[in-house]
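Reopening this one. Same input as before:
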Amino acid sequence: MSTDPFLVAAIAEAEQGLREGGIPIGSVIVSQGKIIGRGHNRRVQKGSAVLHGEMDALENAGRQPASVYREATLYTTLSPCAMCSGAILLYGIRRVIIGENNTFKGEEELLQSRGVSLEVRQDARCITMITGFIRDHPELWDEDIGK
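Same output, byte for byte:
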């Protein structure tokens, strides 16, 4: 289990999403040692097509200078999908910490090919949370990943 306070914050976001009846994926964006944006997957709660955890964290970070994103680190409980990876590249985020990629391996190769540093933690809480959700709500999971 992670003791990294920023991954713990992303996990707390995922847990909040689960309590709200949504998909338990959370994310935080860290700049200069502080969280500037946090979010969780709110597609179900908001009836949104795009509010994945990473997208919600970016939205909640608000408008920032490009220099802030270039030096920021994005923490996410699950490997970023194609949409979220595109946003990471668009905003020039150069470092991503991933809670786990056992249940879903997103566009990690694309991110790495574009110079993004990735670190996969395989955190037990992240794995347990999403595995239980997939088991209990396969239709929502399939919808979220575009199956």
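So the earlier flakiness isn't reproducible anymore. For the record, The helical segments are 5-19, 43-46, 53-61, 66-71, 82-91, 108-113, 124-136, 138-144.
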